């Protein structure tokens, strides 16, 4: 994955968790994780994002110790851990369905990791109390998990993963079972706990919004490979390849081939399959003539009826669908042979309302149109 | 409802008054009426089963319990004697009133041909009493009052206090005699409850043996079934299905076939002994006795009852997500601690259901102990069956034994409910 290697790690920070050439296969025929190299800094909130089956959960399970690595090494704090059994790794973990022990009260659940570590009774009591206060459930110690709401169970699960003060906490789609409103609130709370405790968090999700709002860095997985590892804003604004552009946020795609490399690689001219020429920023193309490429364009960067000469790229589009969304109007155009070209038009006075079948001009800047791999 | 413009279509709510439906009936009455129909329909659906159970289950059990204490012979066939003897103190030969009553009972008993049954009842406890009663009854025509002297002249055994005490005791319609017998007690000649002579004691020992062997079988089923159920619940579906068929296979085979198979395997000229001899582990003369004793019963019954342990265990284990064990491990517990502190407590409803099923089935088991139990490995149910084929007295004894067994099972169920709570059980 050449496109990802440049951003693999922050050279300034000492690496706290390191995957080195990790491969994983379940059946001996296909690789679920292909040559994973990843460095996570101390105190970082790193999210593994990807569609299901992309290998992100497998990576988390290998880090936690529930799956063995087929090849490669995992280091935690410069100690090789891929042969250490899970209970000796000292990693906190929040599971998808919380995995709170149903036969124990909340207090017993929280005391469990302390008890197995042979901690004294009074010590356990103070720590459990502190943990319950941290997640704002001080009076829920005697309840059973089944007597708690989803959000409360979630908080207890977080508290349990943190009560024995691990330096590293793993979270496996912890908010998947919550409704939207609660999920947003819990995102904020987990982020807050992360910041106040300074623990390192590795978070797995398939929800890109969640990944963008919570993380310091996001590793986008696809097909067992990290497609891009970067901060949320870079991921959104500067996707390194067509998969990331498509997976993160909304994206319009146009297909074509390079016909002319620009000066010093500043812009390439691409002939679309429908015949029009477009100038684009070369990101994942070499610039050789005839190379296939995917052009990526964010819906909010497209200008409708731009003033003559203000933008280098102008194409004709026919309105195919208009969806009223209050603050903006989502308009689907038929452009250059694609009828899934979406533009978000702000609901403001200077933008006239459009109707199905209208012909309009659509324009955009070179740097907003990224030429990515085919 | 605020949007509905037409006033009056919605009944006005007043706090101090009962809620009513639109046509003014109290809401509670209307609700009950609407639910009554549903309840009635549900009842009709289960009614056939209810009747069936009452006829085939409730009625016979009630009959059995009644039969085990019912003792009508003396009271019904010697009615006058019964009432006359009630004032007797039992210290000396009864007075003339008792003898006179006996004479009149004999007279009517001869006419009704019922005297023999009364005599038979007494004879059961005092051998020879039948000939005494019948002989005297036949000679009654020639006797004159006072009957006391006449009877004593006829046969001096009429002066036997034991005989009269027995009659007085047996005038009770409800008797604990069969329960005493079922627990190896009896009345002595003075009418006191004492243990039977040691060589006649069978039942207490057999109850005890039935209980401990059932417990052993249950324990073995837990030990053997737990790992199998765990394997079934954790293996991939394809493999676990094959394993499940292996577990269920015994269910589809006749009980007799399975028991006979154990005879083939375990007998002294059987497969296992042959193998051991062939492998020079034992001597041909030292073949091990593994069947027609307690070992045989325990082995065969454990095998037969094992599925009843595995299935509830499996159904409970299947619902325990693997993430619980993982969570415990990630929190620092070793495999062993995670298993004992998290997994095992969660399987208790299954263990309890299996224990209850297997123990209750085992304690009343009949065929297998009868076939492979020999002398030392039979259960109380085998003796109940034996007694059922005997005289009416033995039938009553069988009823008493069976009732004790039933009470024992109910007691076990009660204890179990106290300790674990039956509503927590999962039978699968």
From TrEMBL, chain A:
SUPFAM superfamilies: MOP-like (SSF50331), P-loop containing nucleoside triphosphate hydrolases (SSF52540). Pfam families: ABC_tran, TOBE_2. Its EC number is 7.6.2.11. Its main location: membrane. The keyword Cell membrane applies. GO terms for cellular component: ATP-binding cassette (ABC) transporter complex. Residues 17-248 form the ABC transporter domain. Coiled coil: none annotated. Gene3D superfamilies: 2.40.50.100, Nucleic acid-binding proteins, P-loop containing nucleotide triphosphate hydrolases. Keywords: ATP-binding, Cell membrane, Membrane, Nucleotide-binding, Translocase, Transport. Transmembrane segments: none annotated. It is a peripheral membrane protein. It is found in: Cell inner membrane. One of its GO terms (molecular function) is ATP hydrolysis activity. It catalyses: ATP + H2O + polyamine-[polyamine-binding protein]Side 1 = ADP + phosphate + polyamineSide 2 + [polyamine-binding protein]Side 1. Belongs to the ABC transporter superfamily. Spermidine/putrescine importer (TC 3.A.1.11.1) family. PANTHER family: SPERMIDINE/PUTRESCINE IMPORT ATP-BINDING PROTEIN POTA, SPERMIDINE_PUTRESCINE IMPORT ATP-BINDING PROTEIN POTA. NCBIfam families: potA. Part of the ABC transporter complex PotABCD involved in spermidine/putrescine import. Responsible for energy coupling to the transport system. The complex is composed of two ATP-binding proteins (PotA), two transmembrane proteins (PotB and PotC) and a solute-binding protein (PotD). This is Spermidine/putrescine import ATP-binding protein PotA. It comes from Lutibaculum baratangense AMV1. The lineage of its organism: Bacteria, Pseudomonadati, Pseudomonadota, Alphaproteobacteria, Hyphomicrobiales. The gene is potA.
TrEMBL record, chain B:
Signal peptide: none annotated. It comes from the Bacteria. PROSITE patterns: ABC_TM1. SUPFAM superfamilies: MetI-like (SSF161098). Residues 207-416 form the ABC transmembrane type-1 domain. The chain crosses the membrane at residues 42-62, 211-235, 242-265, 298-316, 346-367, 397-416. Keywords: Cell membrane, Membrane, Transmembrane, Transmembrane helix, Transport. Its main location: membrane. GO terms for biological process: transmembrane transport. The keyword Ribosomal protein does not apply. It is found in: Cell membrane. One of its GO terms (cellular component) is plasma membrane. It holds the Pfam family BPD_transp_1. It is a multi-pass membrane protein. PANTHER family: ABC TRANSPORTER PERMEASE PROTEIN (PTHR42929:SF5), INNER MEMBRANE ABC TRANSPORTER PERMEASE PROTEIN YDCU-RELATED-RELATED (PTHR42929). Belongs to the binding-protein-dependent transport system permease family. CysTW subfamily. This is Spermidine Putrescine ABC transporter permease component PotB. It comes from Lutibaculum baratangense AMV1.
């Amino acid at each position: 994955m050449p496109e990802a290697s440049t951003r693999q790690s922050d050279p300034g920070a000492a690496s706290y968790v390191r995957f080195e050439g990790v491969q994983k296969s379940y059946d001996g025929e296909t690789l679920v994780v292909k040559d994973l190299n990843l460095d996570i800094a101390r105190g970082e909130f790193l999210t593994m994002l990807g569609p299901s089956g992309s290998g992100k959960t497998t990576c988390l399970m290998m880090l936690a110790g529930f799956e063995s690595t087929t090849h490669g090494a995992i280091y935690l704090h410069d100690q090789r851990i891929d042969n250490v059994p899970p209970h000796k790794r000292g990693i906190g973990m929040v599971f998808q369905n919380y995995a709170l022990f149903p036969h124990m009260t909340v207090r017993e659940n929280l005391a469990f990791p302390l008890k197995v570590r042979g901690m004294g009774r009074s010590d356990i009591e103070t720590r459990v109390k502190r943990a319950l206060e941290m997640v704002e459930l001080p009076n829920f110690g005697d309840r059973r998990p089944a007597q708690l709401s989803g959000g409360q169970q979630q908080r207890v699960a977080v508290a349990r993963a943190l009560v024995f003060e691990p330096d590293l906490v793993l979270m496996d789609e912890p908010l998947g079972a919550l409704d939207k409103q609660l999920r947003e609130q819990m995102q904020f709370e987990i982020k807050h706990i992360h910041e106040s405790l300074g623990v390192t968090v590795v978070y797995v999700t398939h929800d890109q919004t969640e990944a963008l709002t919570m993380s310091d860095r996001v590793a986008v997985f696809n097909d067992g490979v990290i497609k891009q590892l970067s901060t949320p804003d870079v991921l959104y604004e500067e996707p390194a390849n067509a998969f990331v552009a498509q997976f993160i946020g909304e994206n319009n795609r146009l297909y074509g081939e390079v016909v002319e490399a620009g000066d010093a690689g500043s812009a390439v001219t691409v002939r679309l399959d429908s015949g029009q020429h477009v100038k684009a920023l070369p990101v994942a193309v070499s610039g050789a003539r005839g190379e296939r490429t995917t052009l990526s364009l964010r819906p909010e960067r497209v200008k409708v009826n731009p003033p003559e000469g203000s933008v280098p790229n102008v194409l004709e589009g026919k309105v195919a669908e208009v969806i009223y969304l209050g603050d903006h109007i989502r308009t689907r155009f038929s452009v250059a042979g694609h009828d899934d070209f979406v533009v978000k038009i702000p609901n403001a006075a200077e933008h006239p309302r459009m109707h199905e079948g209208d012909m309009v001009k659509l324009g955009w800047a070179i740097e907003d149109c990224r030429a990515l791999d085919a | 409802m605020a949007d509905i413009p037409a006033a009056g279509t919605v009944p006005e709510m007043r706090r101090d008054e009962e809620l009513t439906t639109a046509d003014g009936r109290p809401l509670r009455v209307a609700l009950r009426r609407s639910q009554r129909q549903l309840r009635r329909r549900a009842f009709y659906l289960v009614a056939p089963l209810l009747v069936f159970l009452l006829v085939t289950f409730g009625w016979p059990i009630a009959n059995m319990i009644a039969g085990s204490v019912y003792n009508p012979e003396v009271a019904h066939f010697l009615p006058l004697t019964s009432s006359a003897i009630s004032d007797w103190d039992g210290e000396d030969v009864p007075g003339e009133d008792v003898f006179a009553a006996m004479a009149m009972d004999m007279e009517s008993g001869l006419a009704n041909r019922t005297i023999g049954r009364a005599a038979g009842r007494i004879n059961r406890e005092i051998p020879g009493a039948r000939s005494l009663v019948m002989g005297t009854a036949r000679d009654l025509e020639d006797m004159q009052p006072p009957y006391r002297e006449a009877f004593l002249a006829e046969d001096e055994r009429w002066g036997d206090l034991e005989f009269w005490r027995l009659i007085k005791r047996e005038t009770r319609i409800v008797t604990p005699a069969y329960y005493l017998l079922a627990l190896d007690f009896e009345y002595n000649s003075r009418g006191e409850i004492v243990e039977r002579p040691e060589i006649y004691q069978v039942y207490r020992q057999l109850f005890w043996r039935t209980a401990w062997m059932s417990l052993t079988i249950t324990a073995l089923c837990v030990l053997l079934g737990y790992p199998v159920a765990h394997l079934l619940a954790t293996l991939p579906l394809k493999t676990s299905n094959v394993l499940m068929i292996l577990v269920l296979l015994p269910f589809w085979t006749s009980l007799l076939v399975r028991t006979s198979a154990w005879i083939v395997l375990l007998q002294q000229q059987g497969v296992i002994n042959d193998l051991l001899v062939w492998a020079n582990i034992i001597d041909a003369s030292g073949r091990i006795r593994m069947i027609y004793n307690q070992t045989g019963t325990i082995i065969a019954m454990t095998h037969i009852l094992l599925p009843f342990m595995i299935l509830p265990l499996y159904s409970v284990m299947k619902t325990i997500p693997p993430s619980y064990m993982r969570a415990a491990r990630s929190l620092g517990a070793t495999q062993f601690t995670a298993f004992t502190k998290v997994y095992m407590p969660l399987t208790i409803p299954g263990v309890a259901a299996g224990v209850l099923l297997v123990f209750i089935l085992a304690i009343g088991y009949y065929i297998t102990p009868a076939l492979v139990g020999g002398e030392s490995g039979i259960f109380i149910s085998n003796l109940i069956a034996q007694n059922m084929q005997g005289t009416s007295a033995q039938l009553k004894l069988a009823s008493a034994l069976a009732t004790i067994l039933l009470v024992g099972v109910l007691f076990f169920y009660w204890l179990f409910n106290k300790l674990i709570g039956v509503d927590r059980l999962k039978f699968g």
